[in-house]
Amino acid sequence: MASAIEQLAKNANWGAFSKATELKKRLWFVLGALLVYRLGTYIPVPGIDPAVWEDIYNQKGGGILDMFNMFSGGALQRMTIFALNIMPYISASIIMQLASAMSPKLEAMKKEGEQGRTKINQYTRYLTVILAAVQAYGLAVGLESMQSSMGSAVIDPGFFFRASTVITIVGGTMFLMWLGEQITQRGIGNGISLIIFAGIVAGLPHALASVLELGRQGQFNPIELIGLAVMVVGVIAFIVFMERAQRRVVVQYPKRQSGNQMSMAQQNHIPLKLNTSGVIPPIFASSLLLLPLTIVNFSGASADGGIFSQIVAALQHGQPLYMLMYGGLIMFFAFFYTAIVFNPQENAEMLRKYGGFVPGMRPGKHTADYLDYVLTRITFIGGLYLVFICLLPELMISHYSIPFYFGGTSLLIAVSVTMDTVAQVHSHLIAHQYEGLIKKAKLKGTRERR
């Protein structure tokens, strides 16, 4: 991210960047907040034996644990106060979005403007506390039941350990939620996204070291390593291209007369992103597929053979059934989430309210049907794009044992957050340049009057 910001600053006039004092303060605040977050990922939960837990994690790793550990920047593997990271808040936000689409009361509240959004944000925080408390209690109970050849993961099991674990982990999650809001208000970019981004990027050096170690052991030859690097760069470039892709639906506004003034006809467009759902489909699909596998592994049922061992074998990375179900779930959630965040009927009604119309389409139902038709087509292409991005790394992981950090979801999040942050930095630079031009114009006007 830092290199991208520096390159952007050079392109946008380094002198303007060096004079943008407010922008530099915002960037320093973001770096300081992320440093606090990274320090918190090394503060252990009280009552845990680190060596025993590490041994247990190495035995039971894989599945949903690796995904959550990736998002938490290794905090789950170290069992620290940020073990749940910001995931309860993200889950609560998604639940509130779904509820807003299904509940007329919440939908009306959402349309109230800033006051309605404030209420929904407050409900989201309450739901975050509930989800974090439930997950933290389940984690505490699970830790008490875990044993390894080195002993128990919990030094002194009991009510006090459970209570302290719940309080500690819930407190860590709420602190990260507050920290993310502070980054959004006083820094650059979306704070929650940057926290997840920092967790993913923090594991990249270890992942690169693992790949190089595999090459040293002879599993990769130099040509394959170069090919892997080229493939990763190509996938990143493809993600950037597809995330910027959009279908622009032309909208026209007729002439309007307001008193004695006549406004000219205007032409605008509705930008429909190719990937409207973002990274939600891969996250949901991965969670649904890997959750049963994780439960079976923790319960020890897979070691008894029978149907559970067959389920575990069929749902491993790279297996045909896993790939088929993963791709199908990604497509389903792509359409499902897009239908929630974009309502063709509401947009068509909004156009008719302000006098706009799509050329060749009558306002109202016909416009809504046309928007739904266009959105369905581009969502299908966007779903295929997500399936390709997520299944290609799965094949690499299963056949070449590439670390989980090179998965499609992690690349999507890293690239999307970087693009959004760089765009906001660019906006601040342009705003600063405009402020400088306005000040120069005012000074020039003052001198001319003198």
Explain what the structure shows.
The protein is mainly alpha-helical and 450 residues long. It has helices at 2-11, 14-19, 21-40, 50-60, 64-71, 75-78, 87-102, 104-110, 114-144, 159-186, 191-202, 204-216, 222-244, 280-299, 307-314, 320-341, 344-353, 365-400, 408-449; strands at residues 147-148, 151-152, 246-253, 256-258, 261-263, 266-273. The strands form three sheets. The protein has a two-stranded antiparallel ribbon with strand order 1-2. A hairpin with a 2-residue loop joins strand 4 (256-258) and strand 5 (261-263). Helix 11 (191-202) packs across helix 19 (408-449), helix 14 crosses helix 16 (320-341) and helix 16 packs antiparallel against helix 18. The protein is globular and about 85 Å long. The model is unreliable at 1-9 (pLDDT under 50).
Going across the major beta sheet, what is the strand order?
A: 1-2
Mean pLDDT across the residues is 79
Largest sheet: 2 strands, antiparallel
Order of helices and strands: HHHHHHHHHEEHHHHEEEEHHHHHH
Shape: globular
SSE-based structural type: mainly alpha
For the CA atoms, what is the radius of gyration? 25 Å
- How large is the share of residues in beta strands? 5-15%
Low-confidence stretches: 1-9
> Alpha-carbon distance between the termini?
48 Å
- Number of alpha- plus pi-helical segments: 19
Helix content range of the residues, please?
over 70%
- What is the count of β-strands? 6
